[in-house]
């Protein structure tokens, strides 16, 4: 993410809070006086082109790849999918191609070859596992995409509120985080200074089963002596975003010695998540961000954590449970503005977050003329419009369609030279 240093103008924002608390950033000139700015700046091409900068084309591509995991090459693809899932897929590939196999969509629309379909589901050693996704590639891109929640097993994963030590090399061998992993290491963590980084147990257990595929289709090609530079997208929405976060941490860890070497092949890791739950404990967050600090100046790694409006899911598990996000928030407003690192104390600080989250269920969504349905009869409304009408705002704002369309609005501003 681009670093904001001394600039002549700094936009101020009042998102969900009027708290004017300054950030530790360098002082800037505001109205002729040196002050420390509020958090938050509008997306700008000036910063997006800097090393480690966030780029709208990468955001859109990442969200598109994340949502394409909703389908596959089976005869039952999209069976049982909600109207919002189908609507977002239509936004990506068009109405005529909705029912085509994933491999065809990847090839026809993105020139990608489907290398591997991920499908690990059932109860393994007493643990619920339900992980789907895909790995696809071409000569300059590799994509790892995880599917969002679709089954009851997924919700068992989502509702887990425990953490386990981050030990993927060991846990890959046994196929899970370990017996009683939720308590293993807690004494060391809280009573000594030798605690290990920890991650959400449910997400971690589901991720572990994909490590062999990551090694074969991502790490091995990237680390070959004759490798050519590639962008590596590790992406997901919702539950898929949490798994993508685990996968990004793993690939970052495995490739760090190579990527921090300026003479190594110029690969770039790009983690794009939409509506991700929290995954890491504080130590894991710090460990990953220290690694990112080494790679951002080389433009070899970037984390784009997208949240749209009042999306519910990024606020769980609560900070009260000791879970944290990676990197700064990339906040998308209902009007299509994209704001980097806004001040949102009301929505992120422990008990305030819980209170604000419940209050958001009574929020009234701004009427979007494109999808206004009040004047339509029930027979005139599309399934997507009906689903939106019946869905509370914090859940509706979690739908990938809104992420995609609002990012398209930003893209139009970029192309018009307005940002």
From TrEMBL:
Start and end residues of each Fungal lipase-type domain: 143-319
Region named Disordered: 15-41
Record Pfam families: Lipase_3 (PF01764)
Organism domain of life: Eukaryota
Record InterPro entries: Fungal_lipase-type, Sec_MonoDiacylglyc_Lipase
GO biological process: lipid metabolic process
Ranges of biased composition (kind: Polar residues): 24-37
Protein name: Lipase class 3
